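Lab meeting, item 3. Inverse folding demo.
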């Protein structure tokens, strides 16, 4: 179970970093500076992954749906961890 949670937590981040190392030209075409991809990898890894996939050719049509879906998945991870954290801190008598 711990391995599964670890892969869910760090999986997109590992893919982002490996893809950045393997194909830096695509990342440079997508982002102007190094700051945005680093912030994206730290806070919204799946959204960053999808953005790098669709942005160099321009965002057209269904690409926006993929970005919105990735963003919602990233946010749901934060919301779920916050709710779980509240439940874990409750002390019952």
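The presenter then showed the designed sequence:
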């Amino acid at each position: 179970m711990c391995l599964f949670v670890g892969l869910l937590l760090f999986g997109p981040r590992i893919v982002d970093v490996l893809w950045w190392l393997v194909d830096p030209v695509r990342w440079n075409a997508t982002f102007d500076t190094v700051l945005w991809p680093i912030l994206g990898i730290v806070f919204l890894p799946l959204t960053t992954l999808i953005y790098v996939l669709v942005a160099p050719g321009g965002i057209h049509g269904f690409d926006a749906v993929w970005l919105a879906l990735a963003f919602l998945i990233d946010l749901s991870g934060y919301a779920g961890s916050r709710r779980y954290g509240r439940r874990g801190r409750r002390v019952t008598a």
